[in-house]
């Protein structure tokens, strides 16, 4: 139960601070400062949570990461299901809090959808959005698996590496899909935003899961020692 609570808290914090920052400053490419602030908000939250709940649950706070850990033998199926439920509930709770804050204050949600993901940056092309999410998630998860591998020797720097990798994928992805690489992060805001955000949600669930699965396969290949030949 402690692991599930940790995953709930971690995902809650990620959506609250990441999507909340996007709602406040806006994610548009033209507004460069807002664009970078949003990327940093997501990445720095991961850094903080890695050292906060990492020793409890591994700080997945992302169903795609949990899938990759499952595929590489770090989770059992029952644990995986529990993690995903906790992560989605955390995202929903955080979005509910954001809705309450923004609806009761004088600030405007500059994303127009609680920081939900969308396909406007790829001309509403679902296939293009899917490819973006697969590639970005694969890169992100591959770094996570590599830096946390038993063969790695990165010590206390793992959280920093993972966090800043998330910043990097956001810098490219925000203008294209809003950057999901995390089905739970997309699920919560889409439920509240409805409309196109909910209709396109499948892209931000399927894409990250495929990307994570590919990353897990690549990581297992690297770990097998085949490249030493």
Short description:
The chain has 229 residues and is mainly alpha-helical.
Secondary-structure blueprint:
Layout: H1 2-25, H2 32-52, H3 54-57, H4 63-71, H5 77-104, H6 126-147, H7 158-177, H8 183-193, H9 195-199, H10 203-223
Helix pairs in contact: 1-2, 1-5, 1-8, 2-7, 4-5, 4-6, 4-10, 5-8, 6-7, 6-10, 8-10
Structural account:
By secondary structure, the protein is mostly helical. Helix content is 72%, strand content 0%. Helix 1 packs parallel to helix 5 (77-104). The longest helix has 28 residues, at 77-104. It is globular and about 55 Å long. It starts with a helix and ends in a 6-residue tail after the last helix. The mean pLDDT is 92.
List keywords for this structure.
mainly alpha, 229 residues, 10 helices, globular
| Element-level helix/strand string | HHHHHHHHHH
Beta-strand content estimate: under 5%
Number of helices: 10
Q: What Rg do the Cα atoms give? A: 17 Å
Measured distance between first and last alpha carbons: 44 Å
Oligomeric description of these chains: single chain
Structural class: mainly alpha
Give the biggest sheet: none
Helicity range: over 70%
* Low-pLDDT residue intervals, each spanning 5 or more residues: none
Q: Got a strand count?
A: 0
> How confident overall, as mean pLDDT?
92
What spatial form do the alpha-carbon principal axes imply? Answer: globular
């Amino acid at each position: 139960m402690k692991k599930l609570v940790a995953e709930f808290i971690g995902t809650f914090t990620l959506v609250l601070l990441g999507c909340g920052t996007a709602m406040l400053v806006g994610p548009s490419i033209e507004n460069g400062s807002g664009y970078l602030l949003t990327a940093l908000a997501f990445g720095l939250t991961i850094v903080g949570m890695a050292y906060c709940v990492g020793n409890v649950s591994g700080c997945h706070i992302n169903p795609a990461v949990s899938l990759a850990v499952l595929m590489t033998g770090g989770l059992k199926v029952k644990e995986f299901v529990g993690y995903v439920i906790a992560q989605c509930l955390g995202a929903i709770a955080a979005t509910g809090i954001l809705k309450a804050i923004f609806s009761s204050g004088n600030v405007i949600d500059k994303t127009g959808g609680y920081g939900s993901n969308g396909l406007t940056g790829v001309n509403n092309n679902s296939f293009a959005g899917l490819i973006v999410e697969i590639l970005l998630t694969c890169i992100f998860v591959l770094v996570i698996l590599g830096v946390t591998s038993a063969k790695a020797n990165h010590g206390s720097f793992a959280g920093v590496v993972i966090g800043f990798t998330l910043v990097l994928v956001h810098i490219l992805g925000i203008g294209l899909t809003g950057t999901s690489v995390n089905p739970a992060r997309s699920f919560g805001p889409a439920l509240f935003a409805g409309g196109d955000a909910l209709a396109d949600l499948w892209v931000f669930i399927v894409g990250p899961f495929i990307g994570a699965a590919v990353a897990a396969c690549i990581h297992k290949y690297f770990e097998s020692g085949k490249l030493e030949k």
